[in-house]
Each structure stands twice: as structure tokens, then as C-alpha cells.
Design a protein that fits this description.
Largest sheet: none
Number of strands: 0
Strand content: under 5%
Order of helices and strands: HH
Structural class: mainly alpha
Radius of gyration: 18 Å
Number of domains: 1
């Protein structure tokens, strides 16, 4: 398991617990919602990192041109 996955699991758990407290998710359909929430958070993090990597590549390439 990737170290970030543990952090994502904790965040997803907190989100699901909050939704259960608010009555938006019931314990009976917890599994399907947890999976969707986990992957939504993971995709968001991956997309954010991809943008950071692309920006860093642009900065590095600009430095090489000078």
C-alpha cells in the first residue's frame, strides 16, 4: 500500500462518518459509498500532483533555456 493511501483511507472514513451522522448514508450501503468517496479523493490528489509536476517541468525547461 502506498503511504498516501493510508492518509486517503483516513480522510474517506471521516467523510463517510460525517455523512452517516447527517443521515445521508446508512450503514447498510456504507461499502459502496466508501469506495466511491475513496476513489474520488484519490483522483483529486493525483490530478493535483500531475498539475504540480507539469508546472515544475515548465520551470525546469525555462531554466535550461537561459
Amino acid at each position: 500500500m502506498h503511504p498516501d493511501d493510508e492518509k486517503i483511507l483516513k480522510i474517506a472514513k471521516e467523510v463517510v462518518v460525517k455523512f452517516i451522522e447527517l443521515g445521508r448514508i446508512s450503514p447498510s450501503n456504507f461499502e459502496s459509498h466508501f469506495n466511491d468517496i475513496f476513489w474520488a479523493i484519490k483522483r483529486t490528489i493525483i490530478n493535483a500532483r500531475a498539475k504540480e509536476i507539469e508546472e515544475a517541468k515548465v520551470i525546469v525547461s525555462q531554466g535550461k533555456e537561459k
